[in-house]
Amino acid sequence: MKKRNSGFTLVEIMVVVAVVGMLMAGLFKLISATGENTKKARTVARLQRIQNALAGFYAENGTYPPVQQFCSPNPYKVESRHDGKSDWNDVSELTAANANRAAGAQSVAFFYPNVKGLNEMCVVAMGKPSVNASAEANRTHQKSEDVAWDNCRIFKFGLLSYLVPRVEMMGGEDLVAASSGGSWGDGTPEANFFKTTQWGKNNVGTIRSVHEREQHQCARWMPHLEGCISGVGTILGENVRDTENDRNGTIHLTVIDGEYVLQYITLKDGWGNEFYYYSAPPYQSYRLWSAGPDGTTFPPWITMETLKKKKGDRDAKLASHWIEDDIVRFDR
Q1: Is the four-CA dihedral 125, 129, 134, 136 of positive or negative sign?
Q2: How many domains does the chain contain in total?
Q3: Of 170, 172, 173, which is closest to residue 161 (Cα–Cα)?
């Protein structure tokens, strides 16, 4: 009588391997879907929180944040810089990067010199010009021409700059005390800092009055921004830190004759990409959105019909694909 082999045959082993592979693939897909759902849920929750803050801003001011454009809103233009100035040149090809740039023409981020935290870093740690030196360069340069964001990047008043207390973020009490005749010291800028074109165009009143107004208004909606802001911790007693994007934002920029450091804060979605904001004069409505999982979007002020008519089917299909997964909030 033949002895039966009790081992697995090659076919049986292959079947087991195939089944295990299918189970693992299904498990990975499930984990991936769960992760995406978590990011989407986080994005939707943050959009709602920001929308609540914008409602508070409207109730106080009668408009939504009047964010200026910081770059060309045309996705068929690219930037080239010469002698500190920007030129926008026409291009024929539509790219995702250029579409995203145009869609973000009204920035969400707030760029600013934190005079308490960064002045020492500029002068001592980096050997760069101080905040005062940069401000003086701006003020001197303005004698010959009006200085805008393209030429002298001291500030970038994006959406978030309307929702947080600007003076508080820059050094608050020290700035107010100094503007009232106190000692400016090494950690605060001279008074001319607040005579730059960018500050004057975007802030009405004295430093003290701006500070007091912001303290009053922002405290009303700051709780809505809990856990939403990337690049900062606590504002007006509220923990607004975005723990998913928990890192300080700093950037080196050239100002006329040297470099200096800015700090910036922003609002990001569940995928770690900056939100988008669009509001046109008289700022009675807005569109707030995330580019979704693929991180690509398209300027909402250009309709697909217009794009197809002017640029053809290819570009219209590309743009339609980019906005398919966008997550949008409106207020009309």
Answers
A1: positive
A2: 1
A3: 170
